[in-house]
Every structure is written in structure tokens, then in C-alpha cells.
Amino acid sequence: MAFGGSLNHADDVVSEINMVPLIDVMLVMLIIFIITVPVLTHSVNLDLPRAENQPNLVKPETVNLSVTVDGVVHWNEEVVDEAQLAARLEAAAAREPQPEIFIRGDRKVEYERVAQVMAAVQRAGMLKLGFVTEPGN
Is the dihedral of CA 37, 38, 41, 43 positive or negative? Predict the structure, then answer.
């Protein structure tokens, strides 16, 4: 608030706006912007490496294990016994990437036989196991 004039008119209202504080604030802001703008736009040129993004075309092998109604296990349509199944599963588990195992169970096979095949797959250390089903007729 600006006080001016004589002391005799104490009740008079001064209708002047004091511009000095507004100019001070404006100059401080101008100085801040002058200092910070070059810092924000300053960049360092780097020679960055180039990378190519190509999809990995290596698809994991799939193994179909089928359990027939009489409990016989087929490895990709080839009949195998328990020892051969365990040996093939261990060999498949050692490969990189591991093949995916798909188990097909006959509709009338005992569940225990399918569970035994699943346990053999788990004991061998296979990580990917799936079931193949057919939609109901």
C-alpha cells in the first residue's frame, strides 16, 4: 500500500497501485527462465548401438503321448514301454528348449494309467505338459 502526500489527510484512500513489487517479481521470473531454458534444451550427442528386432523362429518340438484303452502308451504314434518312456522323457528334458508334452487319453482308459504317465513326465523334469481333448459330440 502506497502512502504519499501530506500527513494532514489521514483519512484519504490512496488509489494508486504500487508497481515496484510486481516488476520485481517479473524480473526474478525472467532471470529464472533465462537460466533454466538452456539447461533443459542442452543435449549430449551419443553414437548409440543399433539393434534389430527379429522374432525367434525356433519353435519347440511337441511330443504326443497317447494312452489307449488297454493302457498302452504311444510316443508320437510309436508304441513304448515304461523303460523306453522314462528314457525318452529324460532325454527330452535335457534338450534346450524342452519339447512340449501333450497327453491324449482314450475316453475309456482308466484314469490311473493317465496319472502314471503324468507322474513319469513330472519325474523326468519336463516343464510343459498339456492335455488334448476333443469337443463332445
Answer: negative
**CA–CA distance, 109 with 132 (Å, rounded to integer):** 14
Before 99, cis peptide (omega within 30)?
no
Residue type, 10: A
Q: Spell out the domain ranges in the chain.
A: 62-131
Give the single-character DSSP code of 13. P
Cβ partners under 8 Å of residue 128, min gap 6: 60, 98, 99, 100, 101
CA-CA distance, 11 to 102, in Å (whole number)? 98
CATH architecture of structural domain 62-131: 2-Layer Sandwich (3.30)
pLDDT in tens, 40-86: 776 777 777 787 777 766 677 889 999 999 989 999 989 999 999 99
Cα radius of gyration (the chain): 41
If 0-12 CB within 10 Å is exposed, 13-18 middle and 19+ buried, where does residue 65 land?
buried
pLDDT confidence bin for 121, thresholds 50/70/90: very high
